[in-house]
Design a protein that fits this description.
alpha/beta; Rossmann fold; 7-stranded parallel sheet; 3-stranded mixed sheet; 11 helices; NAD; decarboxylase; transmembrane; transmembrane helix; UXS-like
């Protein structure tokens, strides 16, 4: 069982005491960590929670996280977001954390429709079951490409995905879904909050997700070279999933209604530095390599950044980063070695 180091304030748990929750995406990375937090708190503080979790494959989730699947507070509902007629509630809180990141091989129109139509169906559940709070787990992708001279992107940024880039389906769909959530909520008396998630680290991280951190960890643990594809100067930041769960539950219970918050780390790290840290922590035997287009000491193009400004959540809700990057990497790597 994963034990999460909680800094969550007591009033968050008091708000959740005796409440009924419906969670989509509960068997993915974000959802698993939310369930870890909720199940742990429910047992520790005797909250009397009831948590219904939508799962495409309840049997697979039971194998993946049996301690969550069989917990008395959790009920798995088999199905997809397009098949929610049997979800009857009533519910007090809904967390919509479903939708996978769109891969290059996915038809962008199909991906866009799946995200937007799925969100619409979950909103219908919220209206039908009397939910009073709705947390939409969005993404920093709604801002589009971060300008090089913008050190960290705030929630007030007017940036958006490039309409000429067919790869922007995920960011466009998340942006439209945020608008739809807020509009629907006004019509049905629901209090919505949007959480714009940035890069994550932690157990349950899918090592086949084709992101730098997951690729580096997988290669290091399998004895393969850590290969940097692209510009090693690219800047990212990573929040540990236990911290992310604390932030999301705080937004669910205390975030300002009809407001959006960045959820992530404001501590930047280059992809090259990340590779070196992972190599050191794993004790990797294989070297760090660069792909043909990344061996780039002479590169002089713009540096891509993906780093949030988190002052709004910090100052407004008292949130913080509780897990340093090296600790987050060490815990993630240790979990995969045990698994």
């Amino acid at each position: 069982m994963l034990l999460v180091h909680y800094k969550t304030s007591a009033d968050v748990w008091n708000v959740l005491r005796g409440q009924r929750l419906f969670v989509t995406g509960g068997t993915g990375l974000v959802g698993c960590w939310l369930l870890e937090a909720l199940v742990f708190a429910n047992s520790t503080f005797n909250l009397g929670l009831r948590i219904d979790v939508l799962s495409r494959r309840p049997d697979a989730f039971t194998l993946k996280a049996p301690h969550l699947a069989v917990d008395p507070s959790v009920r798995l509902i088999g199905g997809t977001m397009m098949n929610l007629a049997a979800v009857g509630g009533p519910y007090d809180f809904i967390v919509h954390a479903a939708t996978d990141v769109v891969s290059p091989s996915t038809d962008p129109l199909v991906a866009y429709d799946a995200i937007v139509d799925g969100t619409r169906e979950v909103l219908n559940v919220a209206a039908r079951t009397g939910a009073r709070r709705f947390l939409y787990v969005s993404s920093g992708a709604v801002y589009g490409r971060q300008p090089e001279d913008l050190i960290a992107v705030p929630e007030t940024s007017s940036g958006a995905p490039d309409i000429a880039d067919h790869r922007g389906a995920y960011g466009h769909a998340k942006r439209v879904s945020e608008w739809m959530v807020f509009t629907h909520a006004r019509q049905h008396g629901i209090e919505p909050v949007s959480a714009r998630l940035f890069a994550l680290l932690g157990p349950y991280l899918p090592l086949d997700a084709k992101f730098a951190a997951s690729d580096f960890i997988r290669n290091a643990l399998t004895g393969n070279p850590i290969t940097i594809n692209g510009d090693e100067r690219t800047v990212r930041s990573y929040i540990y999933c236990a911290d992310m769960a604390i932030w999301l539950l705080t937004l669910l219970t205390k975030g300002n209604a009809f407001d959006a918050y960045n959820v992530g780390s404001d501590q930047p790290v280059t992809i090259g530095e990340l590779a070196e840290r992972i190599s050191r922590i794993t004790g990797a035997a294989a070297p760090i390599r660069h792909s043909g287009n990344a061996d780039s000491g002479l590169r002089r193009g713009p540096v891509e950044r993906y780093v949030p400004d988190t002052e709004k959540a910090r100052s407004g809700l008292g949130l913080d980063l509780y897990t340093p990057l090296d600790t987050a990497l060490a815990r993630t790597i240790s979990w995969f070695r045990e698994e």
